[in-house]
Amino acid sequence: MSKEKIKKCVSKILIPIIIMTVISGFLTLMLSEDVGEKTQYLDSIDYSVTLNEDGSMKVTETWDININNTNTLFKQFRLSSSKYGDITNVEVYDLDNNRKLEQINEEMYHLPKDTYYGLEINSATFEIAWGVGMDGKKGNRKYQISYVVEDVVTSYDDCQEFYWQFLGEGENTVPAKKVTGTITLPKNVSNIDNLRVWGHGQVNGNIEKVNTHEVRFDLKNLEVGAMLEIRIATQDKIFNVSEFKTRNYNYLNTMLNEETKWSEETNSIVQVTRNIWAVFIAIYVIILIINLIRIIKYRKELKESNSKIVVNELEYFRDIPRGDTATPAEAVYLYKYNKKRLGTGTVQKDAVSATILDLCLRKKIQLRMADKKKVYIKIIAEPDGLNADELEIYKLLKEVSDGEEEFEIEELNKYAKKKYQKFSDSINKFVNKARESLYDLKLIDKAEEKEYRRFNSASTKKSMLKWLYIWLIFNFFFGFIPIVQEQTIFALGLGYHEWYIKVILFFLPLVIVLMYKWHLLHKLGNKISVLTQAGSDEKEQWKGLVKFLKNYSLLSEKGVLDLVLWEKYLVFATALGIGEKVVEELKANYPEVFIQEKWDDEKMLNEYPIIYFACNPYYASLNISNSFYAISSIGSSTQKAYKTSQSQIAAHSSSSGSGGGGGFSGGGGGRRRPADGMGGR
Question: How much is the pTM?
Answer without folding.
Answer: 0.62
